[in-house]
């Protein structure tokens, strides 16, 4: 039985991802700072504060005790958001956002490495965001942390190449989760059209590449708009991108 360990799995995208992989016959570890409110015969649950590296070590050791040391997928899903102008932000909330969104997946990758390395064809999935395509006002700190996640994905992909660990991220626009319950212009202009299930389906597809071209993909979009924005960012000059996005974000 293949295995997937998911952080931030109590609600939203984490929960939808857990349920998707469970329905496909995987053994799933659903860990969160909050209690996991659902069950399944192939579900292992536990407590995890992603900002604590020792808790990562303990949680992964506990989960892999049920898998014979196997870890096919680590899904770095946990994340938080704050909104509003940076000049008015509480420094404590800024630091917490950086710790959860940046330190969290970094500690997770570090702790999971020996298990992923020992499992042929394993994958690290980082939850990124379309806000890492171009810095986004109103949710600036969150957006900046997702640039970190994007860089972490790319760097680890090179660092772990010889360990046969595939490293990818998923970069959706706003999904219908608690993270979208903020004041950001892009929510009003673009809407919230993606569901947690949509993202979970994309994660499942990304973990099962059908050919070498798909296996070489690093960054995954979920909807046509977020994929179009990534293409625009890659091809257009900074000035052009800024002008276009100024009307949206």
TrEMBL record:
Transmembrane segments: none annotated. Pfam families: adh_short. Belongs to the short-chain dehydrogenases/reductases (SDR) family. The lineage of its organism: Bacteria, Bacillati, Actinomycetota, Actinomycetes, Micrococcales. SUPFAM superfamilies: NAD(P)-binding Rossmann-fold domains. One of its GO terms (molecular function) is oxidoreductase activity. Keywords: NADP, Oxidoreductase. It comes from the Bacteria. This is SDR family oxidoreductase. InterPro entries: NAD(P)-bd_dom_sf, Sc_DH/Rdtase_CS, SDR_fam.
């Amino acid at each position: 039985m293949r295995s997937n360990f998911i952080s931030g799995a109590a609600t939203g995208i984490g929960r939808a991802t857990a349920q998707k992989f469970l329905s496909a016959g995987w053994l799933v570890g659903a860990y969160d700072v909050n209690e996991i409110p659902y069950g399944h015969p192939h579900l292992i649950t536990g407590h995890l504060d992603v900002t604590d590296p020792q808790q990562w070590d303990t949680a992964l050791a506990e989960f892999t005790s049920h898998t014979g040391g196997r870890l096919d997928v680590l899904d770095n899903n946990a994340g938080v958001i704050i909104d509003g102008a940076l000049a008015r932000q509480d420094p404590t909330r800024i630091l917490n956002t950086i710790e959860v969104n940046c330190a969290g997946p970094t500690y997770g990758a570090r702790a999971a490495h020996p298990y992923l390395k020992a499992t042929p064809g394993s994958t690290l999935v980082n939850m990124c965001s379309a806000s890492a395509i171009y810095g986004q006002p109103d949710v600036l700190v969150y957006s900046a942390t997702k640039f970190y996640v994007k860089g972490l994905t790319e760097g680890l992909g090179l660092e772990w190449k010889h360990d046969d660990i595939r490293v990818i991220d998923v970069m959706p626009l706003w999904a219908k989760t608690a993270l979208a319950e903020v004041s950001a212009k892009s929510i009003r202009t673009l809407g919230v059209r993606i569901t947690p299930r949509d993202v979970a389906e994309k994660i499942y597809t990304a973990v099962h590449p059908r050919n070498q071209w798909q296996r070489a993909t690093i960054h995954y979009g979920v909807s046509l708009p977020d994929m179009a924005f990534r293409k625009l960012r890659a091809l257009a000059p900074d000035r052009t991108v800024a002008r276009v996005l100024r009307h949206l974000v």
